[in-house]
Design brief:
about 625 residues, Heat Shock Protein 90, Ribosomal Protein S5, domain 2, Ribosomal Protein S8, Chain: A, domain 1, 5-stranded mixed beta sheet, globular, binds adenosine-5'-diphosphate, binds magnesium ion
């Protein structure tokens, strides 16, 4: 048989390697910025157009490359950073594989301009899909500028796979944060589509954090410092009260390299145990220094995972150090974590002057005549609850309709767009038979219908109700807002405020009233009726992170994403006990929806068990 094994041509090998190294524009940003750091730059500028899809350019004032090195730098396994395999265990640089430039040049149009201090004339090289198009001598400043244009131009599948501008910019900014946080002694600048996004002067770590995350960050930081034989820890954690619902600022650096470590993250989280709410995440900026020989950073191509020799010791030490710091700065728990949101004073009540309680004896009260649940206090509590529920559903008119009527209405409006399930649900013989709705495990509502029973997921059902209501308000441009007596102020980073600005209009139709949106300050003087004052911060935070991370490219409008995020945040949570009225109300509202059977995220909201299904179980 003839020989059939061939060596892959270089450009093919490079394209394959590129798949590992370059997943998205942000990967290019990371590789180029790290090369600049390795080259000893003290100033690094990142210029991005269209979230990196059109241009990623990194300009540094590092040591530059000679004419020959410039050409060699694009060869695979071309690196100046290791010479023997042994060097791998004593790394002080970011790069070492000599793969990045070769990979990037395989899948983009790349221009390199570079000059070293000791030569008068520099080099300009143009490469397209691994082919050197030109190499010339030129007058350029000392240092290196690499421009990467039209990423993935020759791999349409990858290019199409790129996410929206919002998502790709988010990733780029993440990488920019990671590199710039690890090197406060280097000045960084980032320009996106012609405008300055970050301008970070040389500084120390604390100032760097503040310059990136906004001046308010300063007072949130608790310093952490410890040194042992195997590891030195430095940095900051955020005070517990600034823990976030979404994973926010969580940074581990090992020997100035950003890493992800679920294990060490756990160590930090456990140090915060009891200080923050379940489901919130602590923020931290932690810098670990270890002997390069004691770690293996070679286990992942994009080098964000590290293997420590002595993981357990580092875990224990990290946890203890953070606990100590939190204790020393006396950040004691102040929040009441078990507080049931359902007991919050309704907004309308909070402004009333308190009246001292009076004792009234109901002389006609006869315990043998009344149901125990209907006596005094409990009833008035129910009224309060009902009032609150009304505010949740204000603007909706379904209250006084009866369910059969609703079901009919829905059935009519449904014919056009309903799926089989919903159609069936509202057919005449299947309307609910009587008004008792049970709650199961504080999670499901169960009601009887003619053909059997209906199980409704309370959280998903409420999401659907709120989602349709919010969308309606945004579409009809009708805001239902509750005015705040004292405006609330929040500090957000500049990019977040810019994002809010761009969403101001649709957000106002959901009921938010922004009295100020400037620099790093957001002032809110009105909130949607379903939002309690105390939850505004968390809701905004979540909203921003949903918008940054989950905006799909096409098919979904921004309003849709907004409505989804808010609905998710505001909906009655699983685990919440619902009074009878509240259960009824929710069921009514759900049936008044256009698409009651699916949640905004397309999860099923309800499930029918027919008498026939049940019969089968008893045969
Ligand atoms: P690695 O960083 O793993 O060595 P790269 O492909 O990223 O591999 O870079 C190849 C080589 O090109 C580097 O080892 C370095 O010598 C040179 N190089 C890359 N970028 C720069 C830069 N900005 N300034 C100076 N030299 C650079
Ligand atoms: Mg490199």
């Amino acid at each position: 048989m003839a020989d059939i094994i061939q060596l892959l041509p270089d450009h093919v090998a490079n394209q394959i390697a590129a798949g590992e190294v370059v997943q998205r524009p942000a990967s290019v940003v990371k590789e180029l910025m790290e090369n600049s750091i390795d080259a000893g730059a003290t100033e690094v500028q990142l210029v991005v157009k269209d979230s990196g899809k059109t241009l990623i350019q990194v300009i540094d004032n590092g040591k530059g490359m000679s004419n020959t090195d410039a050409r060699l730098s694009f060869e695979r396994h071309a690196t100046s950073k290791i010479k023997t395999a042994d060097d791998l265990f004593n790394l002080h640089t970011k790069g070492f594989r000599g793969e990045a430039l070769a990979s990037i040049a395989a899948i983009a149009h790349v221009e390199l301009k570079t000059r070293t201090e000791d030569s008068e004339i520099g080099t300009v090289i143009n490469i397209e899909g691994s082919k050197v198009v030109s190499q010339e001598a030129a007058v350029v400043p000392v240092g290196t500028t690499i421009s990467v244009k039209n990423l993935f131009y020759n791999i349409p599948a990858r290019r199409n796979f790129l996410k929206s501008h919002t998502v790709e910019s988010r990733h780029i900014i993440d990488e920019f944060h990671r590199v710039s946080l690890a090197h406060p002694q280097v000045a960084f600048k980032m320009i996106h589509n012609g405008s300055d996004v970050f301008n970070l002067p040389k500084s120390n770590t604390r100032q760097r954090i503040v310059n990136i995350f906004g001046s308010r960050a300063n007072e949130k930081l608790v310093p952490v410092q410890e040194e042992t034989d195997i590891v030195q820890v430095d940095g900051f954690v955020l005070k517990p009260e600034f823990a976030k619902k979404s994973r926010g600022e969580q940074f581990f650096f090992v020997n100035d390299r950003f890493i992800k470590s679920p294990y060490l993250h756990h160590a930090v989280s456990s140090a915060f145990e009891g200080l923050i709410k379940d489901g919130s995440h602590p923020g931290y900026f932690l810098f670990l220094e270890v002997d390069p020989k004691s770690i293996d950073i070679n286990i992942h191509p994009t080098k964000t995972e590290v293997k420590f020799d002595d993981e357990h010791t580092i875990y224990a030490m990290l946890r203890a150090t953070i606990k100590h710091s939190l204790g020393q700065f006396s950040v004691a728990p102040v929040l009441d974590f078990n507080k049931d949101a359902g007991f919050d004073t309704p907004y309308a009540y909070s402004k009333k002057t308190p009246v001292s309680p009076t004792i009234e004896v109901d002389r006609s009260f006869n315990p043998f005549e009344q149901e125990p649940g209907k006596s005094g206090r409990r009833t008035s509590y129910k009224h309060e609850q009902a009032a609150q529920w009304e505010s949740l559903y204000s603007g909706l008119k379904g209250d006084d309709l009866d369910l059969d009527e609703l079901a009919l209405q829905s059935a009519e409006s449904m014919e056009v767009e309903s799926e089989e399930v919903t159609g069936r649900l509202f057919s005449e013989e299947e309307t609910k038979t009587h008004d008792v709705t049970f709650q199961l495990q504080n999670k499901y509502l169960v009601c009887a219908i003619k053909s059997g029973m209906l199980v409704i997921h309370q959280n998903l059902a409420h999401q659907r109700v709120l989602y349709e209501e919010l969308l309606k308000n945004m579409t009809l441009q009708e805001a239902v807002s509750q005015q705040l007596l004292f405006p609330l102020q929040f500090q957000f980073s500049k990019p977040k405020v810019t994002l809010l600005e761009s969403l101001k209009e649709p957000l106002e139709f959901t009921g938010f009233v922004f009295s100020k949106l400037e620099d790093e300050l957001v002032e809110i003087s009105g909130v949607p009726t379903a939002v309690s004052e105390s939850s505004v911060g968390g809701i905004l935070e979540q909203l921003l992170s949903d918008l940054e991370n989950e905006v799909p490219d096409a098919g979904f409008s921004q309003n849709d994403v907004l409505a989804k995020s808010l609905a998710k945040n505001l909906a009655i949570k699983t685990g919440t006990y619902l009074e009878e009225e509240a259960r009824e109300h929710l069921v009514h509202q759900l049936f008044a929806c256009k698409e009651p059977s699916v949640s905004p995220d397309n999860r099923p909201v309800l499930y029918t068990i027919t008498a026939k299904d049940l019969d089968k179980k008893f045969m």
